[in-house]
Amino acid sequence: MKTDIHIAHQMNSLGKEGKPFAFLIDFLLERPRLFTLNGSSDSIWWQIPGFSNVPEIKKKPPPGKWQIKPVSFEEYQKGFSLVKQHIYKGDTYLLNFTQPTPVETDLTLEDLFHAGSAPYKIFLKGGFVSFSPEPFVRIKNGRVFSFPMKGTIDAGIKNAKELVLNDSKELAEHNTIVDLIRNDLSLVAENVTVEKFRYLDFIQTNLKNLWQVSSQIAGNLPKNYAENIGDIMVTLLPAGSVSGAPKKKTVEIIRKAENYDRGYYTGIFGIFDGINLESCVLIRYLENQNGQFIYKSGGGITFMSDAEKEYQEMIEKVYVPV
């Protein structure tokens, strides 16, 4: 918890002085990092709406080898069953359960960063690359916005849009996360409302095309929000869409059920320009672990979830958007 306070204090100080900065915060808030907007390209590259520090546009490499070795269904089911037990006991009613998948590719993380396409592209050199479609928090003109994503389907399936929007499990999961995010924003803002409910985004990947379901929630920040920007961000963490509800207990269950370190996966990256803020959830994430590439993915589990379907969704999310 000391780390939370320290990073929040640093961000508050910069915000009070109106100094721009970038920030990278891991899922458990144990290894947060701050960057200046100038001179950070030696360690991290970002390409997000309104901001980029990529020094040059490199020619995209040709499609390379992409072989995945997901955990077995039996191994996945162990963690899934533990999650379900806690759901039935009432400890959690939505939990984002994820697993690591080794990937074999002849491309480097830098190659993949240039080859991939996403609203939010982050490359921590020697560490990870993230092609995130999901904003976390956006602050514009004193208003705060969040855009939780819940619900994914293969766009090639007949009537895919109708199927995902009419799926009762997906609807229940989305309702839960919208309520959670609305409550989170109410801790830092006033007049919080759901401005758009369950709209669809089309995502192209190196394997298949997908439809992704999102909502938009917004509220009004106090006038002195800049000098409290660190407190605001830490209060909203971890991101509800990639943890679950209720948050504290759900994170405890996640650590037992997943049995691996998420690290920066499902953490956040963002930039504060002194007035406005843009940030994303670090998903669609590939990490370098001592020369072995590990892709981390998963999905929301509710009492209606089926283990085989959730296992397949976890595997389907192991892709590079192109």
Description:
The protein is an alpha+beta fold. It has a single domain (2-316), classed as Anthranilate synthase (4-Layer Sandwich), CATH 3.60.120.10. The chain contains eight helices and 18 strands. The chain has helices at residues 2-17, 73-89, 109-115, 160-166, 168-186, 229-236, 247-258, 307-316, and strands at 21-25, 33-35, 44-48, 51-52, 67-68, 94-104, 120-124, 128-132, 135-140, 143-146, 149-154, 190-204, 209-220, 244-245, 268-272, 277-281, 285-289, 292-301. Strands 1, 2, 9, 10, 11, 12, 13, 15 and 16 form a nine-stranded antiparallel sheet that branches. Strands 3, 4, 5, 6, 7, 8, 14, 17 and 18 form a nine-stranded antiparallel sheet that branches. Strand 9 (135-140) and strand 10 (143-146) form a beta hairpin. It starts with a helix and ends in a 6-residue tail after the last helix.
Quick tags:
nine-stranded antiparallel beta sheet, 322 residues, alpha+beta, 34% strand, Anthranilate synthase
Q: What is the H/E string?
A: HEEEEEHEHEEEEEHHEEHEHEEEEH
CATH fold-type name: Anthranilate synthase
Instruction: Kindly state the percentage of residues in helix.
Output: 25-40%
Distance linking N and C termini: 38 Å
Instruction: Calculate Rg over CA atoms.
Output: 19 Å
- Describe the sheet with the most strands: 9 strands, antiparallel
Supply the CATH architecture: 4-Layer Sandwich
- Strand elements, count: 18
Oligomer state of the chains in this structure? single chain
Shape: globular
**Class from secondary-structure proportions:** alpha+beta
Mean pLDDT: 91
